[in-house]
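chain below, 179 aa
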Amino acid sequence: MRLLLVSGLALLAFVSCSSAATSIPAPGAEPSGAIHSIPIGDLGDALQYWNVDWKGRAPQLYSEIADVNSLYYRTHAYVPGEADCDDMAADIWESLADSGIVSLIVVGNLEATRESFAECNHAWLIVYSGEGSAAALEVTAGKTYTWADTLDDGTLRQYWEGFVYERPSDLAEDFDQRW
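prediction:
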């Protein structure tokens, strides 16, 4: 696996951001059909969603998740309707889980703010460090973002908004209701 060079600013952001700055804000309307998502209020300081085993090792965790995401992207093709973002997110979620890394699946719309569940058209992952800072994994492009990246590109803030799922099976249950 090749070593990814990560900017010091991105690593610092992953290490030092508080959970308040990296929690996923509630969408505007209550989820219609998103009954298996985690209530936004439960994310704040929810240690069960943090990688507490990695506490004090956020740079290593960031490197690991970025490597997994990048390798997956290089070896898998995005095929709408067959192997698309929710399938890719579920695959990477499983790879991370097999490595003992907790991640959450998020669905949302990167072009809308406070979207309803019906407006969601994309899936990605969020990984919280042992200190509660978060990184977003864009599974269809192999990119990993921290909150510091949003300072340069405000559109990346959309990765911190959406409907959050603990497991792919929870997302699948809601999607079964939708389609």
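The first helix runs from residue 8 to 16. The mean pLDDT is 81.
thats it, cya
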